[in-house]
């Protein structure tokens, strides 16, 4: 064991500090990296760790690789595609079941309430409505808080962080999956302004991860063919496919799903993955299509024109001309401003909720109940402000709608009249979106009703996202944006300004709000096209998305990045910050470095593993000839623990022949699933064994990626991020010093750490160009 | 100067060959890398070189970077987006002009010929038809052969190789652009079965590259703001946007264009690039939409329902059921087999043509003329075999069509009748596709006519692609696939087997053929959707694409990869071949390694640059204290040449202070445009200067990426490819040997080189799983 002092001099005493290119800021290396090793995962604070996409090329792995023949390659290939197929199949079934359940539960609730109102029993109706909402919300919150706190929220930030290499316990477990599905159904059915797309993405990721894990070792449910998937790399690919399938199932948008996974979720992407996620979403599309065929014959209860069916409202051709451009531009600019403001508010509310949630489970539940009651009051109360309108004589459906969850809501009006505000508010989100998107309804809604609806959606969606239940953000943003767009259309859209109808404005408004909040481009464009089923809209949607994203980017980041940051997830961005070019790798190295000898004493290993939390240790050999020290490679904590647990490799002296008679297979070192892992504290090692030696060479990754200490931080980040590393060894410029001077991990690249070490950079001109919201604006 | 012997021992004599982990196959390192440094670019064999996406972090660059303030960042940002906008604008204008010209020239030709046939002057009609085709083909061939041979072919393989890091002179020059546009128009107008999508991609790439280059230094037309784009990295991003814009303009498929660039063209991709290429294609979509609005009023001559307008034939809703699946599956499987066979034949024909083309320009021109005459004969002759059919009473357009390039061709028939074979064959490709895709025309064509058309398309498209003119492959594959699909639909599609109409079968056939030949998934899916404008087709198209690609992948690679391989372009694939895990980096190192000292004699540099063709040289410093040698970094040939040309840095002795008074700016080392570059042979250096010294430190990239010699080749390839490197330094395992043992370049990773060094691996079981076409099949 060697504890190298931070300046790399160590015990070789040959520092050569007047060397050609010694780093400038040596003294600061002794600081400990203080970035947080915990993050808010779902609702609770959990320890996090990094995933490792590098192949640990140790002797055991190499031996396993050499033994693989055609048969193993076929097994791998077969399983890869079978798992993709299963992911698509299961996710589409869950998605369908999810929609079916929501449509039936929420539909039943609205039918019962409407019938009571028809009978004039308004108080009773309100009681039933709010009580059922409260029960459903409470159920969702209780199962989330007590069974799987990791299932709270949309899950997209957590999955995105997972795909970036941040793992947290329980994030993709069976429990989380169960709570996510059931909780999402009850939260959406509870008439909260929350979405189901985010939970579907998380569901898809859970399904994929669980399938790849291949049963449970605890219950003996493992299958040999799945052994190739017991590593972070293959699991990452599966989870990417799963999240694509999630969006595909939520919106019935298979191509949009692939692009969403590509643009928003995945940090690493390659062509082969495109092809596999396309396969998974194709399965989703085909299965959903078949299931809907079954439902069209009316066997699915109230499941009718609900979520899964596209908002197929533009099958006729639409025309638009140059004169429409100014109002569309205005829509885009304002959508961008509103979207970024929405992000700003949402983040503040989330931080405030976090204080409340930290106080204990009771507070979490109380908060959720409060939101539910507030929502019920608004949904039931505000329509009373709306005026009754006479039914149009040429209405395509029964007006007012009686006995089902229709669009021309009667509410308090007399027969032959409908309440336009209730048609929007007292309805499921999906139906509200459909109403807003519909053509030939320019006279159906008052501008004031749409404005009120917009404000209610804004407030409720921002307040509802933070509760401890599986709730998404996609549908709320769409519905808010659609009402905003329709309102703008009503103000500016009439002739002679524009020939576009109000429904089209609603679609464009949804695009602008999505662009301003989520900041995706291609995937949003395709999802919206797949939702509305008209490609002629394409140029307009592209224009609006471009403008709103550009405007919003000037103010803040996209909503998922903001949430990830608020949650403390150490996300590694792809671009390098300008100041990173000014620093060398050595400028950010922190903490003492622990290294092992090639043949190391068991007691030393145990001691080091106990006193540090590092997950990788350089293995250094000493040449007997000239006392020089050579970097042999990098050994992982998990492998060391396995080695100590098995005890097969223990030798009485350090001089024994290495690896003699020790039989380890690659499977022993395979990455565990989501279950508990052995830690060093679980091991019992006798005092006698502590004095023995173990040969680390066969288990050491003999070719870790390395960088020279004088490399700029930006270049090292590119290497680290592009290759998906967990540890990056830093070697000295002058080769006759210690063979390794430090290890870089994800946390060393975090701006908080770097700017903490070098506070002068904080206000330097190398920061990104971004308009700052004035400080006085921070009202919370 | 040091010439290190291949085993890395060099002159330090401290080889340590009994070290812990010395490479296994040392002796083989002395072999020279014999992979070809030339490739077939367009029609001619040219030298190729690699692009360098690594930032050369030398002192000059660092100084320049530090001097950049907010203003420079704004300039860069502004230029980035302005250039994207300009690329979109110019490419859409070219695309529109291209279509306008083709529609008018080909339309005029068909009108004149038809009028002659109406007057009974059949021989004269044939003469005019074939003569105009011949003249147009000859024109296209002549300008290609004499002005810009690099413009021959579709250009997609060349651009794809460029984006992978392979540069060739003239591939993206102004000349190539001109010939590509004009030549493509005349080749397509000449009724050859060739496409314009490929040339549009190349055009887009040329436009992007030329814009990024920012005028010409020769004519003093440079702009300071463009200096940030004078490197391979920013130019690569622009070219990616350009190729996306090309597809967007060719098919009016903006989202498809982005996805095509992402899936097929780009080797490096990141989210920011998605966003920029989306911007470029959005500009294309909006500009095209506006231009078509102008043309709808009839001001564009014969430009009517031609190429740029979508094949908008499915605006009504379509239904399909589970019973349709078997015939669709069959279509997909057969499409995959036919597609891969198509690839196989095309590659053989290309190789054969290559022999002919190599014999001289006259042979090239003769070949093109022959193809043109053959095409004219077939197009004019075969319709005579078709029978005349009575016009349907409910035809939507005039039947037979008189006086314009319509669909119900009269040809030799009497009035009131039309020739269905002529409607397909004696027409532009775009119109033929529209006919095949159309609904409600199940009785318009005989099965035999469609079969004949399919065979003719197959033969002609395979024969036409190899001629020396700018010709694409996309449209021929679509038209071939559509006729194949329609034929299958006629055989199996009728009730009770299937409820799909023949036009829908044609769309699915085109999908299956595209999937079988081009092997893209998401992008083809979106392009087809954007072409046919109906999203309800999505599940079926996805199914067909999945099946045909899977089937075809079992036989051979995608068509562009086959062509790239036939052309000898050293494309670096993303996946690692299994045998690469068995080799270490040291196993493939080849040739002698040349290094420079930190302060080097001018004469030595000149000598080394003259006798080698390497483009990067390690710079090694010698510590005066203990005689050890330290790797300082890597210097590029281009920078050395610039240094020798300027002569500012020359010093009379080696002991002078380094960099004193030498004023170089980063702009001096910026990458030149497509013009001629200085080579070492152009420099005149006096004998006196030869004896002087130059300090290389300020110009050396002090932190090149390095790997240890024992790293597996697969891992090194991942690093090399992911970071887009040109040179990868190999450092020794044992640090007290020479500080660098070799340099890996693109060619060292080529399978030919690796398998040439280690022929035993060739037949090993670690090769990819792929069905082999029996050897007897290779008829050529």
Largest sheet, strands/sense/barrel of chain A: 4 strands, mixed
Q: Which residues of chain A form runs of ≥5 with pLDDT under 50?
A: 1-30, 765-769, 771-780
DSSP helix count of chain A? 24
The number of distinct β-strands of chain A equals 16
Rounded to the nearest angstrom, the distance between the terminal CA atoms of chain A is 50 Å
- Percent helix of chain A, as a range, is 40-55%
Q: Which class of secondary structure composition applies to the elements of chain A?
A: alpha+beta
In spatial order, strands of the major sheet of chain A run 1-8-10-11
Biggest interchain interface, per-side counts = A-B, 89 and 89 residues
Choose one word for the global shape of chain A.
elongated
Strand content of chain A: 5-15%
Average pLDDT reading of chain A: 81
- Quaternary structure state of the chains depicted: homodimer
Describe this entry's structure for a reader.
The structure is a homodimer of 780-residue chains. Chain A has 780 residues and is of the alpha+beta class. Chain A is 50% helix and 8% strand. In chain A, strands 1-8-10-11 form a four-stranded mixed sheet. A three-stranded antiparallel sheet of chain A has the order 9-13-12. A three-stranded mixed sheet of chain A has the order 14-15-16, with no helix packed on it. The longest helix of chain A has 49 residues, at 70-118. The radius of gyration of chain A is 29 Å and the shape is elongated. The relative contact order of chain A is 0.14. Chains A, B: Its main location: membrane. Chains A, B: GO terms for molecular function: voltage-gated chloride channel activity. Chains A, B: Keywords: CBS domain, Chloride, Chloride channel, Ion channel, Ion transport, Membrane, Repeat, Transmembrane, Transmembrane helix, Transport, Voltage-gated channel.
